[in-house]
Amino acid sequence: MSVDLAVRVAGLELKNPVVAGSGEATATEAGIRACLDAGAAAVVAKSVNESAAARAQLRAAEYVVLDEHLQPRPLGPAGRTDSLFCRSGLLDVELDEWIDTIARLDRDAATRDAYVVPSLIVADLEEAARHARAFEAAGVRWLELNVGAPHAEEASAGALRTGVDLVARVRAAVSIPLSVKLRAGDSVADTLAAGADAVCLATRAMAFVPDLETRRPLLGTFAAIGGAWALPLSLREVAKAHLAQPEASIVGTNGARDGYDVARFLLAGASAVAMTSAVITNGPAVLARALGELAGYCADHGVAARELVGEAARHVQTYEEVAIERRL
């Protein structure tokens, strides 16, 4: 039985809802191509801006996998009880060359019915608008603006800016579809009103882990954390956004490890799912496995992927309604 996995995001038809999210696994041409080879409908490249301080952060980045006891081990394959804990920064590239690279990769992706999406984080707002225009002029078909970068509050002054107030200026600079990546709690309504065609919910949280042996901070400071444990929190963000803005185009992220998690995000109200930490730790093969698992799930339930979008969210009851139903 053939299964229809097609979905619609930011006004674009995607062949399936599985996206490789912006991260270290999508920081090179080879990494982006590997994600396309795995079947992702879109690959969001590692974020960039013009800030030297943001690039220096990436050169000094550290990554560990934490087990269920918060014990670290080197970056590598991770399971559902593990978390990715890291300091990171922005890609250290010449922006003009990166723009040309992304445009060429996106042209290649179009032959596979897929997209390669650049991701911008703001340092200087006018520079962000200029780079957005340059991506569009190069032929890129879709742009992500990340206004919820988790590392921003720990970054050097001027390296990273966050907040939905940044959206309107970038939106005014381009006509291509614009998706905006938010933190938990950022206003979806304000982001859409500022011109976003889709929102991505939500970036990883910042965390702090003392090392019990050294009695010092693990990685020396605060760091971003993500893992399967975050999935229910992310699903709530998505469901709330879907119920408040039923027509909003939502990309779910933070917590998806497999195709069943992708289905959970769709049921909560997302139309696509960006898998990032799982690809960093386990490689692009997780994307192919997720597609197979999602196809099997849809086949077992006799539904197309787009039919799942928001189904569970639309059946959310108040505590009072649940109590009444249980008494009947």
Structural account:
The protein contains twelve helices and 16 strands. Helices cover 36% and strands 18% of the residues. Helix 4 packs parallel to helix 5. The chain has a nine-stranded parallel β-sheet. The chain has 328 residues and is an alpha/beta fold. The protein has helices at 29-37, 52-59, 95-110, 125-137, 167-173, 188-193, 231-244, 259-268, 277-282, 285-301, 305-308, 319-327, and strands at 7-9, 12-14, 18-20, 42-44, 62-66, 72-74, 83-87, 115-117, 119-120, 143-146, 178-182, 198-201, 205-207, 223-227, 250-253, 272-275. The model has no long low-confidence stretch (mean pLDDT 96). It is globular. The chain has one domain (7-327): Alpha-Beta Barrel (TIM Barrel), CATH 3.20.20. Strand 10, helix 5 (167-173) and strand 11 (178-182) form a beta-alpha-beta unit.
What is the topological layout?
Layout: E1 7-9, E2 12-14, E3 18-20, H1 29-37, E4 42-44, H2 52-59, E5 62-66, E6 72-74, E7 83-87, H3 95-110, E8 115-117, E9 119-120, H4 125-137, E10 143-146, H5 167-173, E11 178-182, H6 188-193, E12 198-201, E13 205-207, E14 223-227, H7 231-244, E15 250-253, H8 259-268, E16 272-275, H9 277-282, H10 285-301, H11 305-308, H12 319-327
Parallel strand pairs: 3-4, 3-16, 4-8, 9-10, 10-11, 11-12, 12-15, 15-16
Antiparallel strand pairs: 1-2, 5-6, 5-7, 7-14, 13-14
Helix pairs in contact: 1-3, 4-5, 7-8, 8-10
